Amino acid sequence: MSVSADPHAAATVVVGAAAATSAAVNASAGTGPVPVVRVWRPEGALEVEATIGVLRFGAGDPAYRRTRDGAYWRCSRTPRGPGTLRITVRDRAAEIEAAAWGPGADWLLGQLPALLGAEDDPAAFDPRAHPLLRDLHRHHPGLRIGRTGLVMESLVPAVLGQRVTVGEAHESWRQLLLRYGAPAPGPAPAGMRIAPAARDWVRIPSWDWHRAGVDGQRSGTVVRAARLAARLEQASAMPPDQAFARLTTVPGIGVWTAAETLQRSNGDPDAVTVGDLHLPNTVGWALAGRERSDDAVMLELLEPYRGHRYRVCRLLRTTNVRAPRHAPRYAPIDFRDR
């Protein structure tokens, strides 16, 4: 890995306190408590919480933690193996220090700028026609659309979120990672776990899916996706249309799930979530003052911002703007009794 070729900013890689060559980085990663460290200086404003907070799947996500010292911890299963990443913000995000442990450490550090939105280009986004969007864009100049480069990491939580409440999906993810995930490498906070490998998702018995509150339809989709994991991971490097087509070839993965995945794995600023229960009403209320909207109305209102429709939704979620709710609350279903 040669981080000096990074076109977005100056960066260094060190092991302990000494500068390291690529060979030293690869040799040292995962061999002990000494991390591989990268210092990266982003160009322009960067709001780290607003950028990577969408990767946390619930407050109890075992793969994501923010500690009292302000550091962000993530553990991932990379193409080179499991790794733990700690991100520390310096000087109001003018400088980012990242430390990584495990076989996937060098991969995670190489991916750091993309994770923090260095590949995102909001220059073509023009919200001046709408006062609310104009103000939100001005107040959040550092909100970036980051790219993890990891498909299964975001696909499985998206599948778990199909047709259930957010809280139900978060709890299912937490239970599955605690039971079947691997310990995070390095000095990660207690309880952090790396999501199962594709072969391990396939091996989860039906009773443990049910114990985690996941019905057979969703668990079947995860298993089918896991069996095709190598092909699905290729979508992270594909253009949006091709990536969307690759994911939706799997039975059980529709437009909602594909969009939720590609927003994170590919950093797609236009992957608007169609089929969401509340998003159309939020967009309709915020952009047009409509109390009730459907997907067709939402897409019509977002059309002037094509290419950045997901960015608009992210900006709207930084506010407390919510359409009045008229429908009865959804009653969670306990699949463990079925």
3D architecture notes:
α12 (240-248) packs across α13 (255-265) and α14 crosses α15 (295-302). This protein has helices at 22-28, 48-52, 105-110, 112-115, 131-139, 151-160, 166-180, 198-203, 206-211, 216-227, 229-233, 240-248, 255-265, 279-288, 295-302, 309-316; strands spanning 11-15, 18-19, 36-40, 64-66, 72-78, 81-90, 95-101, 182-183, 193-194. It is an alpha+beta fold. β5 (72-78) and β6 form a beta hairpin. It is globular, with a radius of gyration of 20 Å. The chain has 16 helices and nine strands. Among the domains are: 3-121, TATA-Binding Protein (2-Layer Sandwich); 151-265, Hypothetical protein, domain 2 (Endonuclease III, domain 1, Orthogonal Bundle), CATH 1.10.340.30. Residues 1-31 have low confidence and may be disordered. A seven-stranded antiparallel sheet has the order 2-1-3-7-6-5-4. Strands 8-9 form a two-stranded antiparallel sheet. Helices cover 39% and strands 13% of the residues. This is DNA-3-methyladenine glycosylase. Keywords: DNA damage, DNA repair.
